[in-house]
Design a protein that fits this description.
This protein is mostly helical. The chain has five helices and three strands; from the N terminus they run αβααββαα. The chain is 54% helix and 11% strand. The protein has a three-stranded antiparallel β-sheet.
Length: 93
Amino acid sequence: MSALTLAELQEAIAMQNQATQSPKIEKTVLGTNEVCDITGYKKATIYAFTHKRLIPFYKKGKRLLFDRLEIDAWLRQNRIAPISEIVDKAMNL
């Protein structure tokens, strides 16, 4: 039986740690602060969007809650296509 080198031992430990760690579960229900982090908008802007019903949200008591998939879809709905995409579509007509 041969001895492991320090690098081989460290690699084996790292692989074992990766195997035993549970996969990261992405949250599906978000709070206002998390929506701010995702979108880059300030909290006041998110509140204004909810007041004007421009962003999909839920209300539980006084708390505003957001569905991650709905927020992702909301962000994508106003996508502006780059010129290269517009030219490609025009060329394929």
